[in-house]
TrEMBL record:
<dbReference type="InterPro" id="IPR009081">
    <property type="entry name" value="PP-bd_ACP"/>
</dbReference>
<feature type="region of interest" description="Disordered">
    <location>
        <begin position="95"/>
        <end position="129"/>
    </location>
</feature>
<keyword id="KW-0596">Phosphopantetheine</keyword>
<feature type="domain" description="Carrier">
    <location>
        <begin position="4"/>
        <end position="80"/>
    </location>
</feature>
<feature type="compositionally biased region" description="Gly residues">
    <location>
        <begin position="110"/>
        <end position="120"/>
    </location>
</feature>
<dbReference type="Pfam" id="PF00550">
    <property type="entry name" value="PP-binding"/>
</dbReference>
<feature type="compositionally biased region" description="Low complexity">
    <location>
        <begin position="97"/>
        <end position="109"/>
    </location>
</feature>
<dbReference type="InterPro" id="IPR006162">
    <property type="entry name" value="Ppantetheine_attach_site"/>
</dbReference>
<protein>
    <submittedName>
        <fullName>Acyl carrier protein</fullName>
    </submittedName>
</protein>
<keyword id="KW-0597">Phosphoprotein</keyword>
<dbReference type="InterPro" id="IPR036736">
    <property type="entry name" value="ACP-like_sf"/>
</dbReference>
Amino acid sequence: MNPSPMQERLTGLLRDHFEVDPGALRPEASLQDLGMDSLGLVELLVILEEEDGIELLEQPAGLTAETTLAEAVRILEEHAAIGKRQGEGAVVQEPLSPSVVSPPVVSPSAGGGAGAGAGTGSAAEGVLS
């Protein structure tokens, strides 16, 4: 059976970045057996996010130092597939224009000077002028 792209990527990272002995990269080996601790796992996830574009908003459930290499591959493949589906269905929202976000500017004539509130114009006229 051919290794999946995620399995190749994960074993490549463990071998090249984390300097794990290639002979130790067996499916039944736990990440802890391969020398990974919780900080190493976080570093691995950051690399996958930054270099591979896998959206990992938080550490995937079930992915710990005790997870086997085969389980880690399965968990990361599932998480990557979920992130991809969510990305495809995402609606891009345009930012609000400054006029919608900015508070109205009140001119001095509509402000709180002498006779405020006693004029014939509405407060809206002062805001729009």
